[in-house]
Amino acid sequence: MANDAPALNEVVNSALEFTIPIAHKMGVQAEEVRPGYAATTVPIEGNGNHFGVMYAGVLFTVAEILGGAIAISSFDTAKYFPLVKDLHVFFRKPAATDVRAEASLSEEEIARIAEEADAKGKADFILKATVTDANGVVVAETEGLYQLRTHGK
Fold first, then answer.
1. Cα 119 from Cα 55, distance rounded (Å)
2. Alpha-carbon distance 112 to 90, whole Å?
3. CA 16 to chain centre
């Protein structure tokens, strides 16, 4: 029997269009999404600043979106929803090309988060992301404090 469900990256991309329209307008795309892992991209075209490199807010956005993408792929969305509580961005080099952001959570951390959210109605977790340019150079790193919340609690 064939699985007709859309790929997780397609689910995230569809959700972006309606839930975070500005990220969609920037061209943020979920390229790879699976339980515990997500990678997003954004083009340089249309996202430059006054001196020809990617605008800092776009670098922030392509990394911050990873928290939602990982939540969609790792947790039951009928039961939980994510939010960002805090995010620190560390700009390393100017980005003059398209960029890719990646982040992951271990199976153990996913289990801990779900167990705590079930018990308390919410669970905090840290997600670190790396943003690289088309040449593989790290242009930014982020450390975000996210929270998984249980619907209705």
1. 40
2. 27
3. 11
Note the pLDDT tens digit of each residue in 72-108: 999 999 999 999 999 999 999 999 999 999 999 999 9
**Whether the predicted model's global pTM rises above the 0.70 cut:** yes
Note whether 134 and 94 are within 8 A (CB): no
Closest CA to 101 of 58, 50, 72: 58
| Rg for the chain, CA atoms, rounded | 16
What is Dmax (Cα atoms) for the chain? 53
What distance in Å separates the CA atoms of residue 142 and residue 35, rounded to the nearest whole number?
Answer: 20
Between the CA of residue 61 and those of 66, 117, 127, what are the distances in Å?
9, 25, 14
Three-state secondary structure string covering 67-102: HHHHHHHHCCCCCEEEEEEEEEEEECCCCCCCEEEE
Which long-range CB contacts under 8 A does 16-21 form with residues at least 24 apart? 16/65, 20/65
